[in-house]
Amino acid sequence: MWPRAALGLAVLACAGCGTAHHETLALKRAQAAKPAGLRIGVVGPLRIDVPGVTPQHGTLARTAGLPLVLVSAKSAGLATVAAVAQLHPGSHFALVGAATKGERRPNLVGLVLRDDQAARLAGVVAGLVANDVGGETPRVAWVGPQERGLAAAFGNGAHDAYAQTLVLHQWSRRVPARCKEAALTAIGRGAVLVMAHGGSCADAAADAAHQQNVPALRISDFELPSVAADLVARDATAGVYHGGEDIVFGASSGAIAIRSLDPRISLGTVVRARAVAGPG
């Protein structure tokens, strides 16, 4: 049996317990009732960080009914996304990293990244690497298919960073074995850095370069598709949705910047390159 003094202390200690319990329940109900924000589907390697938005990561099929679905062009092709958009006219879709030309839909927008600006920024990094090596004509190389516009932008960036840089063009078919062979040939010609556009060709070129302890770059090192996706998601929170068009994102939007660089590039060069490129 409880002593009277102890019982009195227990009663005092429990004073207000019922009130605290009700307050806890009320808080839980309030949190449950609090809106989670605009639910947006995210398909593929995109990171969305927008106040008022709740990203729902999943497949295109599972997210198709949400108000807005952001689809990485690395995860689904234009024809597939356009077909899903047509089946879900009440939802809006954004293909991040590709144009929608030829498959326009009123509820589908393409978010296009300026690959020419990305190539030029890659050239700046290449020129800084060439400057580190020194010499009268240090060499860097563009390997892969004959994408002359992008290769020219790369060369312009390299010359802007270090005028003495010699840019080699080692063209090849878009076949991994040929791209690897082109990279090795360029390195044999003295290239101290190898650049390729992307995909399996760039993977093969990078493998060849790394076997020779030479740094490699690709367009995606300088593209931040999540920046473009964030801007469209932010518009959606204000009730603004895009469709039937392509929106182009360049360096001024922050979507073209240095995302990552080959660890074979010296830290000093990386610091200088980021200073030139600006925040990203």
Descriptive report:
With 280 residues, this protein is an alpha/beta fold. It folds into 2 domains: 106 residues, 3-Layer(aba) Sandwich (Rossmann fold); 127 residues, Rossmann fold. 44% of the residues lie in helices and 19% in strands. The chain has 10 helices and 10 strands. A 6-stranded parallel beta sheet has the order 2-1-3-4-5-10, with helices on both faces. A 4-stranded parallel beta sheet has the order 7-6-8-9, sandwiched between helices. Strand 6, helix 6 and strand 7 form a beta-alpha-beta unit.
Write the layout of secondary structure elements.
Blueprint: H1 4-13, H2 17-33, E1 38-43, E2 53-57, H3 60-63, E3 68-72, H4 78-87, E4 92-96, E5 108-113, H5 115-133, E6 139-144, H6 148-161, E7 166-171, H7 176-188, E8 191-196, H8 199-211, E9 216-218, H9 225-237, E10 245-249, H10 267-277
Parallel strand pairs: 1-2, 1-3, 3-4, 4-5, 5-10, 6-7, 6-8, 8-9
Summary of the model, kept short:
The chain has helices spanning 4-13, 17-33, 60-63, 78-87, 115-133, 148-161, 176-188, 199-211, 225-237, 267-277, and strands at residues 38-43, 53-57, 68-72, 92-96, 108-113, 139-144, 166-171, 191-196, 216-218, 245-249.
Number of strands: 10
Low-confidence stretches: 1-35
Q: Indicate how many domains the architecture comprises.
A: 2
By secondary-structure content and strand pairing, the structural class works out as alpha/beta
Distance between the termini: 71 Å
| CATH topology assignment of the largest domain | Rossmann fold
What is the mean predicted local confidence, pLDDT? 89
Can you tell me the CATH architecture of the largest domain? 3-Layer(aba) Sandwich
Q: Percent range for helical residues? A: 40-55%
Question: Would you state the CATH class of the largest domain?
Answer: Alpha Beta
- Inertia-based shape: elongated
Count of separate DSSP helical elements: 10
Give a short account of the largest sheet: 6 strands, parallel
Computed CA radius of gyration, to the nearest angstrom: 27 Å
CATH homologous superfamily annotation of the largest domain: Response regulator
Note the beta-strand portion.
Answer: 15-25%
Order of helices and strands: HHEEHEHEEHEHEHEHEHEH
